[in-house]
From TrEMBL:
Annotated residues for binding of substrate: 339
One GO molecular-function entry: transaminase activity
Cofactor: pyridoxal 5'-phosphate
Name the UniProt record assigns to this protein: Alanine--glyoxylate aminotransferase family protein
Aminotransferase class V domain span: 21-306
Keyword annotations of the record: Aminotransferase, Pyridoxal phosphate, Transferase
Residues modified to N6-(pyridoxal phosphate)lysine: 192
Amino acid sequence: MSAPKLFSPGPIMVKDNVRQALTHYDICHRGAEFEELFARATAKINKLFKADDTYRSMIISGSGTSSNETVLSSIFNEGEQVLLIRNGVFGERLLEIIEKHNIPLVDCEFPWAEEPDLAKVEEMIKANPAVKVIAMVFHETSTGMVNPVKAVGELAKKYDKWFFVDCVSAAAGENIDIVDMNITFATSVGGKCLGAYPGSAYVCGKIDALETLTPEMGKTVYLNLAKHYISAKTKNQTPNTPNVNLFWALDVALDNALADGGVEARVARYKECAGILRQGMKDMGLKFLLDDESKMSNTVTSVFLPEGRDLKGFLKDMEDKGYVVYSGKGKYEEMGMFQVANMGEIYPDDCKEFLNVLKSCL
């Protein structure tokens, strides 16, 4: 069977040198070679986020959710609150983590696909002085919307709050400057816009915040941010056995993202590809979930099938022709929405060929 073309928001198609990195000879995760690899890769993660020397990065063996849970389950003392801004499935994933660990919550909920109202956010900050952390998703993949992270970061700075941002579907796909955006903790994973594999998650955190954490604050053993930070800072190590093979692939993917024009060049390619896809789908008369293209991410487009067309049948037709796209989530699936992603090894010519296949399936 020929490999399918993954126009889905993770896992993604990877570059050949990333795939080949998985065949690296076996090493001991407690040896010098691993520690050099860890130091190299975490320094590159800092560059990916445009972090300065006031930040430190760590790698977590797990999905993007594991990096989010590592942070959110580890940074609160008793009685400290989190203000969660949410407007989609992955905001609700953060809510699930927060509730599972019994963290006091100020829930700033907005309808799916609706941009958060900054005035409401600020009012909730002012009304809840026990809030320690403001949390939100950068790119809400379930809708394809990019949230106003910089503006919320300015509020976090104004009211002296930590700012946690789930960048799982944004890192290497959107322009992120963790310093300029006043982000305290950013998370992501290799198997999205960066072009590596699921299972290689990472956290970039502000050192002065990390230094206030203790292992006892963490509510889990494995996903304990203080333990990860101490191991990274003192030994370029992880506190538990990591998935070493994925570290090699992550390191190469970071090289790819930072080379030849840097992250900006990759973001520009993703934006160009999204533009080709969107124009083509417009020309076919398809309707988007988001009316304002300025709110759309560079890598995910949420679009509705023509009325009366069966979504499951359409997805199977696409897959039979070698192309994989996602169905929408929640109520959007019932409305015949599907999602087209252009993360990873997808280029303008691939998008044009995708449109030809899409047209034939419609």
